[in-house]
Write a structure and sequence with these properties.
This protein folds into two domains: about 1-235, Carbamate kinase (3-Layer(aba) Sandwich), CATH 3.40.1160.10; about 310-470, 2-Layer Sandwich (VC0802-like), CATH 3.30.2130.10. It has an eight-stranded mixed sheet with strand order 3-5-2-1-8-10-11-9, with helices on both faces. It has a six-stranded antiparallel sheet with strand order 13-14-12-15-17-16. The longest helix is centred in the N-terminal third of the chain and has 28 residues, at about 85-115. The chain is an alpha/beta fold. It contains 15 helices and 17 strands. The model has no long low-confidence stretch (mean pLDDT about 95). The protein starts with a strand and ends in an 8-residue tail after the last helix. It has helices at about 15-30, 45-55, 65-80, 85-115, 120-125, 125-140, 170-185, 210-220, 255-265, 275-280, 335-345, 370-380, 385, 415-425, 450-460, and strands at about 1-5, 35-40, 145-150, 155-160, 190-195, 195-200, 205, 225-230, 255, 285-290, 300, 310-325, 350-355, 360-365, 395-405, 435, 440-450. It binds adenosine-5'-diphosphate (ADP), aspartic acid (ASP) and magnesium ion.
Length: about 475
């Protein structure tokens, strides 16, 4: 059985939802087994929901009502456009009305309280998938395909890290098998809300923005599925973001490890945690274009092709480079360890670390949203050293980005870094800092944010990624 996830643009209009139903129907006919369909919210809907909740918390009682009206209009229009039977459409409209009333009441309570908890935000932002999954189920039924809506709160059991929850695998496996397998055995396509889970107590959580990819691989690994297919709006995983590099090409085959690096370093095509559940079980993932279902897309599996040396280039933005500097740091053991413990206490994660060989400077990169708390925590840790001037400065340089050059074939091949440096030098881009993971799958460079797009394009040209058959 296949678990298939359709992203926001793939369910972005009524016509597209009808297309999703056709793809699912085709897979059912060809394989004789219904796929499990996981859907995202219609594109832009989650952003609107987050805006509704945050504006409500600041006392604005107008914006969430406007968003409610927009949601009603958009979903009603989609019902009209995806060929849903009139009988089904009537019931669906009533259901949507009920959900939107619930949303309005929740936003009203948030505005009265004047406070938005992460738990409250998850409850609101989960609505988009609850709406789109209902439309997709009705579109399937209207095309004569047996289908059943499944709320992921009934299936994906998570911890209570609201906004970025992690699945509890044993509990999720039991529920997924109990709820989804009987449907599949009866020839029914389960349509599951992406992005959402619930705690053991049943409180709704979300898996983080873009998390529907992760929902699909969690279910794929728990059932287990033969393969997981991620249907999106481009022809698979490409050598770079096609919005930045127009001549980027599809990578035909890539390993779990390489994709994990790409998604961690900003390739939005997959949520950073997507690969984790499937890599553990060796389940292949295909990334496909819902607008061009016959394009082969990308196969992600344990052994990607070793060639070419550089597979793809990605960038992650809105970062800060934190530096801890001081001549008194030299030869003093434990400075780096204490700095990183302080970062951990502020709940931030470090994306990259470098240290100068003189040991007078430790630099690491965090997200800019985390930077003030990180600087404060590191300063507090080294209060005494700063007083004695062993450490002179803890500073944050904002508006930086990391460009990551990824490819398993880079291992042991000399000169890759030199080629990247000269490609950047040729277009006048200064490299602030560099790091290479010990796996040698990834060479990461920090540049100022305004240079990062050009840096990606220059590196893409240097390795001729627009021409090499992938
Ligand atoms: P979905 O709504 O289907 O989840 P996303 O917008 O989350 O789609 O992800 C797809 C987008 O990811 C593409 O439109 C593309 O702009 C972007 N992207 C970034 N890096 C890459 C890459 N290396 N390969 C393909 N797409 C990429
Ligand atoms: N709808 C959610 C988001 O916009 C999840 C997803 O699209 O994968 O973040
Ligand atoms: Mg996505």
């Amino acid at each position: 059985m296949i678990v298939m996830k359709f992203g926001g643009t793939s369910v972005g209009t009524g016509e597209r939802i009808a297309g999703v139903a056709r793809i699912a129907g085709r897979v059912l006919t060809e394989r004789g087994t219904p796929p499990v369909v996981v859907v995202s919210a219609m594109s832009g809907v989650t952003d609107g929901l987050v805006r509704a909740a945050t504006t409500a918390a600041s006392g604005d009682t107008h914006t969430y009502q406007l968003i409610r009206d927009e949601l009603a209009l958009r979903h009603e229009q989609a019902i009209g456009d995806c060929g849903i039977d009139s009988e089904l459409a009537r019931g669906l409209k009533a259901e949507i009305e009920t959900l939107l009333n619930w949303f309005e009441n929740l936003c009203h309570s948030i505005s009265t309280l004047g406070e938005l908890t992460p738990r409250g935000l998850d409850a609101v932002s989960a609505l988009g998938e609850r709406l789109s999954a209902r439309l997709t189920t009705a579109a399937l039924l209207s095309q004569g395909i047996k289908a059943h809506l499944v709320e992921a709160t009934e299936v994906i059991v998570t911890d209570n890290a609201f906004g970025a929850a992690s699945p509890l695998i044993a509990e999720t496996t039991a529920k997924a098998q109990e709820i989804l397998l009987p449907l599949i055995e009866q020839g029914v396509v389960p349509v599951v809300t992406g992005f959402i889970g619930a705690t053991v107590e049943g409180i709704p959580t979300t898996l983080g923005r873009g998390g529907s990819d992760y929902s699909a691989t969690i279910l794929g690994s728990c059932l287990p599925a033969r393969e997981v297919w991620i249907w999106t709006d481009v022809d698979g995983i490409m050598t770079a973001d096609p919005r930045i590099v127009p001549d980027a090409r599809t990578v035909e085959r890539i390993s779990y490890a390489e994709v994990a690096e790409l998604s961690y370093f900003g390739a939005k095509v997959l949520h950073p945690k997507t690969i984790e559940p499937v890599a553990r079980r060796g389940i292949p993932v295909r990334v496909l274009n819902a607008r061009r279902p016959d394009h082969p897309g990308t196969l992600v599996c344990a052994n990607g092709a070793p060639e070419p040396v550089v597979k793809a280039i990605t960038a992650i933005r809105n970062l800060s480079l934190i530096s801890v500097e001081g001549s008194g740091m030299q030869g003093v053991p434990g400075v780096a360890g204490r700095a990183f413990m302080a970062v951990a206490r502020s709940n931030a994660s470090i994306l990259m670390i470098t240290q100068s060989s003189s040991e007078q400077n430790i630099c690491f990169v965090v997200r800019t949203v985390d930077s003030p708390a990180v600087v404060q925590a590191v300063k507090a840790e080294f209060e005494l050293e700063m007083l004695h001037q062993d450490i002179d400065r803890v500073a944050s340089q904002d508006d930086v980005a990391i460009m990551a050059v990824v490819g398993a074939g880079m291992k042991g091949v000399p000169g890759i870094a030199a080629r990247v440096f000269s490609a950047l030098a040729n277009v006048g881009i200064n490299i602030i800092s560099i790091a290479q993971g010990s796996s040698e799958y990834n060479l990461s460079l920090v540049v100022v944010q305004k240079d990062v797009d050009e840096a990606v394009r220059a590196t893409h040209r240097e390795f001729a990624l627009d021409r090499i058959a992938q």
